[in-house]
Amino acid sequence: MKISKVAVFGTAKDGKKAVTELPESLKDSLLALQKHIEVLVGDCQGLDVLVQKFLIENCPDRKVSVYYSFPENADLDKTKPRNYLGENNPNWQSVGIPVPSFYKSRAFYTQKDIAMCEDADFGIAVWDGKSKGTERNIVQLKFNGKSVDIISI
What we know:
Layout lengths: L4 E6 L2 E2 L2 E2 L5 H9 L5 E4 L5 H12 L5 E8 L20 E8 L5 H15 L2 E6 L4 H12 L3 E6 L1
Parallel strand pairs: 1-4, 1-7, 4-5, 5-6, 7-8
Antiparallel strand pairs: 2-3
Helix pairs in contact: 3-4
């Protein structure tokens, strides 16, 4: 199977404290990816921002797509990710996912994760064994017939 896009998901918090650094095994995985493989990541604080920061600092030539949700009735020119570190990198792009107004809170942001699972060829999940969002992404990738590596924290 040719892999051209990998989605990186993760637990925003480890227990009750925010995740403040990437696991070494995730860093190794990101560095080991072939140059042509695009990384798909979200715009949430915590692990998503840490992945973005790591890629900017260590893989500046890597193609990266940062996914975010926005209300479907919003002015597209005024939507943007909550966290996006690649403003000055031509290899980065933001991917807005329009979400119907009946989706609220967690369900609203889940729509971008579903899109990432659809667009990815493969996934890497950093999971504390508790996060329902990360678990849902693992299940979604597998449901879509895609492999996922799970890094336990």
